[in-house]
Structures
1.
Amino acid sequence: MPTELATDLVGTSLAPVDAPRAFLVVHVDLPDRGSTVVDLHDGVDVTFGRSRGAVVTVDHASVSRLHARVRRTGDVIEIEDLGSRNGTKVNGDKLDGPRRLTRGDEITIGPIQAVVSVTSGLRGHPAIVDASTGEARLVAEIDRAVRYRRPVMVAMLRIAHDAGLELIARSLRAMDLLAEQAGDEYLLILPELDRATGKTALARLLDGARGVGAEPKAVSVVAPEDGTSALNVVATLRTALRTGTSRRATTAPTVTTGPIVIDPAMRKLYAMVERIADASMTVLILGETGVGKELVTEAVHRHSRRRTQPLIKLNCAALTETLLESELFGHERGAFTGADRKKVGFFEAADGGTLFLDEIGEMPPSLQAKLLRVLERRVVTRVGGTAEIPVDVRVVCATHRDLDGEVRAGRFRQDLLYRVAGFTLMVPPLRDRTTEIMPLAEHFARHAADSLGRAAPVFTDDARAALTSYPWPGNVRELQNAVERALVLCDDQIRAADLPDHVRDASPAPPAFAIGAGADVRGQIADVERTAIAAALAAEGDNQTRAARRLGLSRRALIYKMEKYGLKPPPKGPDGAPA
């Protein structure tokens, strides 16, 4: 392992371009949405809204059809609210007219947060790439670190000094990477450096930049020791750098809810986890999206004899069939175009430990047969290879789908269902364990406040009432997002006004079932179901496809229930009037 950064230059100069690049780093705080980079071209408007004609389209009740516009004219960047219902904020202040933006300004539009970024003009150096390229490389490096148990140091820098930035870029090895983030922040990836050698190398880079008058700040982590998720690693570094709470982030933020087990059904679930943890049979975890199936998997691994071996996680819905097969079983060099070297699959990487296959219901049928063979024979064959490689892996699967229904529809193999459902665990939705809502919310608030270096806020009575009455179609994940958003907006108290509009304005939950003589149980169950459907539609801006996905239903089943409960508008006649 190298003990210091090479001094060879990977480029001879950094020629400035004609004009600095300006762009927005846009994050949408909604399920199935993430971050993206939108360039600000001279004279071209970047619009935000629900309309498909907007550049940044977000179908959410708090976003108007055409909500706001950002325009760049030469070196001037301006934002203007387009008469939206809920307004547009810049750095927390509501706009009352056009406003000029500068690097680092934060725009808030409902669930949208966008940070204005302007490059230093130092482009063309092979070690400086854009944010998207940097994050893709980070994912690949952390994956390599997990598979081959090799370290990679990841640092985040803040530096506004062009000469200092140039000196850092020119001092990197060919394998290193420097990527733009937001404003003056850069992501630095240093493969094959552990904590000791990485600390020395990073200090040498920063000292060199200080020698030309720069004042860089940096925090760092080392994967896989400090984290195995690129998203968590970046979040840790960004929080530590911006709050100044730590010179180095030593752990990735992993919000755990394992200790918060209050509801009787959850106590029974975790008691079952402890009983089956050491068995070798496959586990199938069922539950709605965001309900905490991954946390149950971690508990299974933590209580087993395999706890000292790796826990490898793979989302089957996130990859195409070809890529999923390669990720699961690995491939040999030359197996397909672009396979320039042998790759170890997740089954081999998890040997001796646990492999978590999330959303197994999304796996293509042709790949289901290959997975069944591996589960039965405990051997894998890499793509493009012929050798059978034995593996000792405990497999845990999870899905929000009704696999029995998928079998009847011909989309899931019945023999595979028998194999993966050795033990079946059902995680109840959050709306069925209301006693855990406030303990979870307070836990998320404490964790987020700690990462920001501030005291944990308290929840007011109106905030508690809103949180406990909302049906949480997105479950624990939605609750966490709502609390973290509220923490950004609040002072020392989280009020109902700090919560997302759809949470604050939701209808109160129906009263708890009163089982007794004359109790209308069916009617009360129907009320709960109708409330959940209405909340999901409101959260997704009446988009039926996404609302169905939130509820774990097919779109056809959702439409049937909407008609049943009077939530679907009547069809319109040729003149546009109700038929």
Note: Residues 1-18, 121-125, 245-259, 509-519 have pLDDT under 50 and may be disordered.
2.
Amino acid sequence: MIGKVRRGTRVEGLLRYLFGPGTDGEHRDAHVVAGFDAPGELEPSWHPNGGRDLRQLDALLTQPVKQLGERSYRKPVWHLSLRAAPEDPILTDAQWARITDQIMDRVGLAPDGDPDAVRWIAVRHADDHIHVVATLARTDGIRPDVWNDGHLVREACRAAEDEYGLRRTAPADRTAARRATRAEHEKARRSGRTEDPRTTLRRHVQEAAAAARTESEFYELLHEAGVLVRHRYSQRNPNQVTGYAVALPAYRTASGPAVWYGGGKLAADLTLPKLRTRWSANSPPVSGRGLDERTVRAYLRTTVRQAADSSRTAADFLAHLDAAGIIVKTRRSIQDPNSITGYAVTLPDHHDAQGQPAWYSGGKLAAALSWTNLCRAWSGIPSPTPGVELSADERRAIYNDAARAAAFATAEIRRHTVTNPHAARDACWATADLLHSAAQATGNHHLARAADAYDRAARAPHGRIPHPTPSGNRLRSAARIMAIARTSGSPGIQILTVLAAAMLTLIDTIADLHHLHRREAQSDGAKAARRSLSEVIHDGTPWFTADQSRQQSPVAVAMADVPHPWAPPVLGVPQPSPGGVPGTRHSQLSRRVR
């Protein structure tokens, strides 16, 4: 059952609509089923011409508002629409009356047994829905509080679903993204846009948040995507940024200014304070733990190149690397200890076989990144060709590491599903980052649809930010590496299928987690994302033999790619082996690619 609250100024116009024929003659047998008095006493009388006389009912509802005078709300008419699902049984008038009584009691407008509560009526003019009209003024001269009424209505609707066996709907847990209004949809249609601006901006912000390692990089990525950004500053400290808003350059009001949306108007986890938790000092932006050496080398080379291009001096260069979470070791001149003669970089938690930090000098990453060539470039002297493009092996390593991160998160979520579901929320949240980065890096439309569908399944209830966990941090690291080291070329269907298969099993596990804890809206979102990911694997079926493509379902393919299958072995599905990354099927793929 769905309830929607609206506010208005005039009771008379609303009553005429409810007791009238409707916009398309859809209203049938409009009558009062409940209210502040007996329904028979509140039922409007009939005119001799066949219409309803609404004057007395209008006067009864508006009288407390007039007594309240200037202390009244600007919009004192409270209008609630309640609708049951099409497959639900048709409720009787007595059942609708009980439901509306419970809602008015839970919201606090008309508590049970309170003779001075607000005046209200419930009008039914169809089988599947009902309207509740109340005026926000108590008869004892007190203005009622309607704060949080939408969430209280949602709780009452869920209680009615349990009592009458109706279709279960999602709780008001504030995990759903803000929907575009009808006006936004209509304006987008008139301007020839295939998508409303709110949805477009939310996707841009999510992609930038997934890729950014710092707040300044977040704003830079939004500018690169063609998004306008406006900051909100503290009134106490004018230099402190407390919020942001985004807009599309081509989407403007009739008078000319851009239409701005704050982060909180896009989604609950996109406010600036919650985004800042992604860039907190509790964990490095990218950790080298568990990464292939080729992945680390490619990421370091790309990051160092970007830092060098954004710098004009050695101090700027070192500051950019520090902000990106890169550990730098400098070599000093023996004659002049203040003079830098070389440098080496590494990632936190990236060690060699002896357990020592594995360092990479700039010249080993690329000839143009040696300290001598960087100093020449900052002095205006042309340097050698940058040479920072990714090789096929490096691209393969990046996607394989992302698949390993997904497999690790899958195992962690399974371990916490029953014993400690709160510990699994961080991995659920970080999975969205990996999906968005993969979709942006590859340009694959199936991945883009999966990222959009998964949106709600990522968020914890009531906008809470989960406590960071190793599995979540590893997924975020994989997302940032994939975003920072992306190339314009396609990664190849074989490489992409490996990641999609591991992500498929991860999202299946997340769907099971949400379903077990009765979060059906989040479970449905994960299942929708799973269907889109399955299409990525289906696109790769020409790579299999004819017999394999007939025998292996997308789930079977995913199980073969993840080291920890979530179900017993299936006949015809190859099992993981130590020689492959992350499984036997990938070993065969790697040999064929080479």
Note: The chain has 23 helices and 13 strands.
